[in-house]
Amino acid sequence: MKNIVSAIQKRDGKSLQQIYAAEKPKQQVPEQAIQIFNELFRQLKAAFPALMANIKSQDELNELRRQWVLAFAENGITSIEQVNAGMKLARQQETPFLPSPGQFVAWCRQGEVSRYGLPDADELYDMVIDYSACRGFYDGPEKFPWQSNECWIMVPALYSQMRSMNLTPAELRQRCVKELRVMAKRLDSGEKIGAPVAQIPKLHCPVSNEKGLDKIAEIRARLGMKKQQVGD
Description:
Blueprint: H1 2-9, H2 13-23, H3 31-47, H4 58-74, H5 80-90, H6 101-114, H7 121-134, H8 149-165, H9 169-188, H10 209-222
Helix pairs in contact: 1-2, 3-4, 3-5, 5-6, 7-8, 7-9, 8-9
């Protein structure tokens, strides 16, 4: 506390910043995310030559690494393959300056889905809206002119969520991002997505055994049937 008071009295902003940084609790980050950043940093220095020009000290470099590692950990960037997908888009940029962690995370996700020819989140959103407007002109979802087998899985699922949860456009867009990530992981695992096929309609909603017995009792009561006794 004495150090803080002294720094305030002397209007020593640098000392205040150092005191705050020392007392601020450090957020734990996975070791895997740190290793991924180290590989990324090597590539970033080559792709963005102005990167080191804005870093004046080791402390600034450490803080830069901390922010990027946290961004990776918080957004599920957990593999070198994801980073390489982001770097593919990063190398297409004309600026020599480093992107923000959030921008690079977006590039990782965009590159991840584009590897398999999947639409981006905006395109998938438009597909859901188009399916919602035109689905009535077809005998079933399997007859709809899907762009790919993956879209045949994602779009009807998103349409059902939109209807059942009364999603806003913003919420539907968020669901599109998640659906693409799930599909990319399925494809990463080697899964092959089959062609559209007719689905048997679900004519009942499964219930628990207890609720099923309650329904049976309700029907028996309506029909005036007595409760069945053991041994009858």
